[in-house]
Amino acid sequence: MAVLPIRIMGDPVLHAPASPVGEITDEIRTLVADMFETMDAAPGVGLAAPQVGVPLRIYTYTYADDDGNPWRGVIINPELWMRPTEPGAPDPDDESEGCLSFPGERFPLRRSDEVLVTGVDLEGEAVRIQVDGWRARIMQHEFDHLDGILYVDRLDDGDWKTVQKIARKRGWGRPGSAWTPGIDDLEA
Questions:
Q1: Which domain CATH number covers 161?
Q2: What are its E.C. numbers (predicted)?
Q3: Quick check: is 125 catalytic?
């Protein structure tokens, strides 16, 4: 397995819809294993294939609940359904999230509190996940990556201006920007 470079917000692969996976091959299995290793090294709670430069509809996820129980998996060709988002401004203490493609920063973002995700796993078996809370946030965040949407694209105007300043300062607005967790020192 190998830790893969994570694409930073200016890379074009992050801003285009990903293609469905046609067949689960050994190359797909290796990609998923590398994605788990990269996600863990970053560390992150999710990683979509476009974040490592692969424009396919795959994402991995991991999370431990309040009791330390692990929740980990991969979804290939996911479909997402969600409850409507509650109106109002997000709570900066409870609804802030970050992204490995915009590392070192967190911004408040309102997301749906409950989702249903379907797709297949590495064996081609059907997956059906209905979750709420942070797990729902993870599913929405990673699914957005597959549609070429970064969480910073969903921020209000004030936070969006802050994102643009940070990106310019760090040089993240250009194609090819990437960092490798555990290898490259990331200036945040």
A1: 3.90.45.10
A2: 3.5.1.88
A3: no
